[in-house]
User: Fold this.
Amino acid sequence: MHAVRIIPRLDIKGPNLVKGVHLEGLRVLGKPWDFAYTYYKAGADELIYIDAVASLYGRNNLLDIVRKTAEQIFIPLTVGGGVRNVDDIKNLLRAGADKVAINTAVITNPTLITEGAMAFGSQCIVGSLQVKKINNKYIVFTDNARERTELDAIEWAQKLVELGAGELLVTSIDQEGTGRGYEVELTRAIAQNVSVPVIACGGAANPEHISEIIINGKADAVAASSIFHYKYAEQINSMEQFAEEGNLAFIKNARGSLVFMQDRLKASTINEVKEYLKTKNIICRK
Assistant:
């Protein structure tokens, strides 16, 4: 069995790190580079940055954040949000990203995946899927879960690989931010029908959820937010001003408790997660 990657996901709105539920109601947690550096030192295998509002606002706001992060960390960094063309991919890679995740633009321009893979290699191109279960079918959404397509998620995942994606990031909209665990059925269906690594995202609240998606969901890697963000938040006290993008209540209340998930969230360090996975005979990177 290959070593599983543990990947903190950092959603960005403006200059702030945010966290939502079902990709909505974005609460400001801090500054992304503070969390990124903390996760790097704590043993994360990779990091994922996603601009949560880039497609909505028609912008790509991550270049400066990526540059600042790349100066401090030396693990692979995947960046997505607002990627519209090959120049956007090139600019993110030049800024310090190792991989670029693409979702919305591919719906109207599928050749973007192929063009990116030909220009920079398929290992740099991540096909991103945001998926919601509707009438027992897994349907693809875009624009950070705001816009519905009629695409079947399993078929679209296969198409993204055919176009040249070297990896897939699969986010369950239904589970994201809820602490109810990953969407196992969805992840397994995609993983069993593609030839590239699948990163599962959305729903982790404890190490048990992570082991389940690896064992039963066949995920090659796991992306997680709440389980790590709310463990490390108290350690990270940025002195910077926070822009009014997202809900600032968490910051203004001195990083108060996460009441709505208290019954489910078992906030953990990256090492605690890896140690738990070892007890399930899951191989982790050191």
Q: What stands out?
A: Residues 5-279 form a domain with the TIM Barrel fold (CATH 3.20.20.70). The chain has one domain: 5-279. The radius of gyration is 17 Å. The first helix runs from residue 32 to 42.
